[in-house]
Structure prediction request, 534 residues.
Amino acid sequence: MPSSDSQSASSDTPAAPIGGEFPFVVVSNRLPVDRITDDDGNPSFRTSPGGLVTALEPVMREADGAWIGWTGSADDHVDPFENDGIHLIPVALSAEEIELYYEGFSNDTLWPLYHDVIAPPAYHREWWDSYVIVNQRFADRAAAVSAEGGTVWVQDYQLQLVPRMLREQRPDLTIGFFNHIPFPAYGIFSQLPWRRQIIEGLLGADVIGFQRTADAGNFTRAVRRLTGFQTRGTVIDVPVTAEAEVASAKHRIATVRDDKLVRAVVAKAFPISIDAASYEELARRPDIQERARQIREDLGNPAVVMLGVDRLDYTKGIGHRLKAFGELLADGALKVEDVTLVQVASPSRERVRTYQILRDEIELTVGRINGDYSTISHTAISYLHHGYPREEMVALYLAADIMLVTALRDGMNLVAKEYVASRFDNDGVLVLSEFAGASDELRTALRVNPHDIEGLKEAILQAQAMPRSERARRMRAMRKRVQENDVARWSSTFLATLATPSDDLALPRVSSRVTRSEARAEERAEARAVEEAR
Ligand code: F6P
Prediction:
């Protein structure tokens, strides 16, 4: 069932007022809905892809704020509107900007660079120029709609220059930034010709959030290497120069050091999550449980259903998963009569060449495995190149005995948390890559290194043979974690840190001796990370 989560356009809703009245503003590349126009020119809205929207939508529904972002189409000059109780403020991108800023710099430079160069990043000056122009447009929009003394929360790698651009115009604002994807080790980050501008852009924020402690550490090291600013634990002392900033951001002006005023910027991990209760609520619905039964029946009632759910992205390790599965069929360790793999691969960034090549490779592999091992009545891999509404996803989670998350690098991977949140029956086994942020929290998953195909095969066999009592024990521990650390906790922790005066942030100073030895340890860690990434 292809995606049907479209909602009809609320085009008759009066435009949300703009001009400095929103005390809380979220800024992200995409709005939570993409605007789609049919052949007759009628608009409708569809939930936009990715974990960012999954996480932020419930936060925005609670807050009476505005969400600034792009509608997903070229040259879409739309007035602000309201959708599902959220004020949406569109930013238009031209076709050329989509090519240079979005597909180019964001997704063919930053994305591969920040994911440890799994694919080679491309560096083009005209892509960078477009990134600067578009970031400025987002910053201008946020400056125009935010209320005096308000809070602006900027999201993700597409908008790393916005915090500084916004601070320059509106020093009265409190500015947060959250990076949804990994932040690489300095040895990798330093490839970027515009590395200093990115660091300076981010340091315009008061709090910079990352998924993992390691990401925050990589960022802080990059700050030290590129700016020489002093850091104290999770606090970075950023010298303040503009008088307006001193006057209006008093609660963040930390101290006078060497005759310099500094602003305390916090950089630390705030692992993102999901609205866990809403997944459990769906999973408990009889119609969704019936749909799960139906899915298994339609698959021929195999003894074991395995599931993969990913955007079709080279960071997700779909090829590694298929390789392991194909070899298990070839070895005879798995039989097509007993086991089916359902792979949902939702379309993503389809005009970027690396993604086109990936799709060809994945579909060739699926075709080969199915050709070699499927029978008339049993299909080895049920491959679905679609996005699905949340109800269908939860039914799939309930239908799946084993969930395979084999990302090569992933900021968090909210699919892993969605699976856990849906399994109120305390059943199902999560096989989880140690390179996904979620593995820091979901310690009782079967954690794997997806590059180690033999290890991955063993984990799949272990999952298949795992006794019910062990499945329940592992799942219970993961559910506790996901239920306690849900998305409401994520946002409230981040926003509470953003509201904390800098005096309360002060941490013990480190002596210069410790700083030097820390620096040596950092250099060694960076060298190791670069080696590992090769
Ligand atoms: O989480 C990373 C992210 O790039 C988000 O910023 C985005 O919403 C999602 O993945 C989907 O990516 P895109 O907007 O490029 O389709």
About this structure: DSSP finds 19 helices and 20 strands in the chain. Residues 29-30, 49-53, 107, 156, 180-181, 348-349 surround 6-O-phosphono-beta-D-fructofuranose (CB under 6 Å). Residues 360 and 525 are 37 Å apart (CA to CA).
